[in-house]
Amino acid sequence: MSFGSHPRKTNKKNLPLEALMPQVPRSNYLQFQEEKQRLQLKKFLLHRMFLVARITANIEKKDIADYYEQLFQSILKRHLGEAVTGLLLIYPTSILHILESSSGTLYQILLDYLSHKKDDMEFFIQGMKIIVMSHNIPTRLFMQWHVSVIKAPVMYLDDVTQTQSLQEVMTEFLIQTHKLALHLFKTVKVSPKGPGDSLHQAAPELLLPEQIIKYLCNSAELMDPEGFINMYNKPIHVILDSEVVWPAPSRF
């Protein structure tokens, strides 16, 4: 004679604590480090600035990289936690620089450039122009600040600067730089090496020709750092209704 077996009731009080906790998929150490860095970089309103400039011919990459690294460290001492991320592309005679940080940090970077421009006529960065400044962006495109030298000339079919308007060239500039940033975001992990100096081999179709960088540097319509700083410091005067003296109603 057989008897049906009844399922034994499990007493939750006797289960280990881990069994009662919701299970969260474990991530590897690299993902943990990346998420930790993202959280650390979300402590202030974030802005992104696109710059172009001319550089002295035959200037060493190390000189440019050292200048910016020392500048970032100096600013970080006064703006704690406001790290700079982005990408510096060094062409033979020009640079393209994307910077992400707080408004105060970006302001100090421009001020330092103006200080060198005023005191050092032979400063290796000249003719800087601000292409665009994106305010209060939701997230960073870069987890670190990277430097890459464009060693080989970027191939192109025609000179678009001769046939397109400034607005069209700027649109192409922003599209290409965002594509490049997304490519690096997907392929470059948190590492001191970064993308290295092989971008012209890894993603040549995403690199802008230097002629576009030089064209934007020479554009009189784009704002330079001095003009931007003057606008930044200009007080915004808002007239309140209580300050307006309205004319008395006419009796006639």
TrEMBL record:
InterPro entries: BLUF_domain, TEX47-like. Pfam families: TEX47 (PF24787). Transmembrane segments: none annotated. It comes from the Eukaryota. Residues 46-149 form the BLUF domain. One of its GO terms (molecular function) is FAD binding. This is BLUF domain-containing protein. The lineage of its organism: Eukaryota, Metazoa, Chordata, Craniata, Vertebrata.
